[in-house]
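User: Thanks for the earlier help. One more: Ring-cleaving dioxygenase. Can you show the sequence and predicted structure together?

Assistant: Of course, both are below.
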Amino acid sequence: MTLRTAGIHHITAFASNPQANVDFYAGVLGLRLVKRTINFDAPEVYHLYFGNEAGSPGTIITFFPWPQARRGRIGGGQVGITTYVVPQGSLGFWESRLEGFGVPVKKVTRFSENYLQFTDNEGLGLELVEREEGPNSGWSFGGIPADKAIKGFGGAVLFSVNPKRTMDALEHLLGLSKVAEDVAYARYRSFGDIGNVIDVPLSAMNGGSDGAGTVHHIAWRAHDFEQHAEWRNSVEKYGYRPTPIVDRQYFNALYFREAGGILFEIATDPPGFALDEPADALGEKLMLPEWFEPHRSQIEANLLPIEVRVLEEKQK
């Protein structure tokens, strides 16, 4: 094994109400809406991307918000919890902010780290952890100062129907290192400084079902297009059947489902979200790939309007 991923590139989930989705991730969590586009495979559905000021790899959570979406069930074969990392000393700020917006929080400890766990408006599992590593975000919004803002992903907790196989793929395919194990979890770490810590429950999980409030896939970073092609060969040699490489406009992608049931993607760091709009105007208007531009009027008519807005806390 010669290839090693730096960590998570992005995580993609299902939602239902697009404005409620924007309100939670931009309004409550203070992330930047870095791209509003459509699901290239279903152009009647938004594809919304939230991250740091540039939408850097390791910070991006994306959503397919479809108003008719059924509610999913979190379980095996999914990312069970998406972990966000915040600067040291800021968990108290976040506990107060979340409670101010009526978001219940639960305090847990895992591998000697303290977490605030909560769910978004759809029931998606989230948590916050303080860590020194990783650059601070340059984005400040909605009353969140930059020195308290979410940096990006701390990592994820993977719910697997076959934990041994999932852990083997993390170590021997993706190149993460096993760094700890206790009675409930094994922990893996990549060489990157963000999106780099993956925990896997040691007990197999019953399968979940796709729908609003669940993760569709987790994407791992490829440094460039040349390495991406090498990743495809590596996945095949490991015994999985990756898809052909797909142009997703802002990165190239390939997909495969690992033996624990989780849909993995490998995505390229380039070209990034400033490909088709200025960096200082990211996410401000609907961006379409050129093959959909002739249908812009029809596509826009089928999408509910959304806006990024500052929200008032519900509880003072």
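User: Great, one quick takeaway?

Assistant: The two ends are 54 Å apart (CA to CA).
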